[in-house]
Amino acid sequence: MKEIESKEDVALLVETFYQKLVNDELVSHFFSQLDLKEHLPRVIQFWSFILLDEAGYSANMMEKHARLDLNEESFDRWLKLFHETVDQFFTGEKAELAKQRSTLIAWTMKTKFIK
Ligand code: HEM
User: Fold this and answer.
1) Extents of the domains making up the chain
2) pTM for this structure?
């Protein structure tokens, strides 16, 4: 177990998380049309901005979710898999921040996008 300290750490987190997402019976369909070669670097950049204060992510991440048919169960699964992946590899302040921030953003998305 180690702290999240580098972009390589963030990449390990995001890549392992997405392996779980694309194999999950409840949420995999959201990701089936995505070109992961293009998508994953953006997600890595996003988390590097949050966890490592690294500049480079400037898109409107929230809006990318507006047209998806999201529901409460999908959010709960997404969050469970994300937290599980953080705990699989990492401990410490940044690991806690990753879990806190994902919970907060998922909650904000839920209130914005679930009808
Ligand atoms: C049920 C929950 C979620 C599902 C099914 C989901 C699915 C997706 C999909 C399909 C995209 C690609 C959209 C596109 O390029 O048109 C995307 C982008 C993204 N999502 Fe999620 N998402 C969920 C929750 C979250 C949460 C809670 C976060 C952050 C904590 C997040 C972070 C991102 C980021 C950073 C991108 C990349 C945006 C970009 O291309 O700049 N997602 N998501």
Assistant:
1) 7-113
2) 0.96
Strands (E) located in the chain:
none
The list of the chain residues with pLDDT below 70 reads none
Span 7-113: which CATH code? 1.10.490.10
Give the Å distance between the CA of 101 and the centre of ligand 1: 14
First to last CA, the chain: 40
**Residue 2 pairs with which residues in a beta bridge?**
90
Cβ proximity of 51 and 98 under 8 Å: yes
Instruction: Locate the ligand 1 atom nearest the alpha carbon of residue 109 and give its number.
Output: 27
Angle of helix 93-113 relative to helix 36-52, nearest 10 degrees, comes to 120
CA distance readout (Å), 68 to 39, 76, 91? 16, 15, 32
Q: Residue 18: phi, psi to the nearest 5?
A: -70, -30
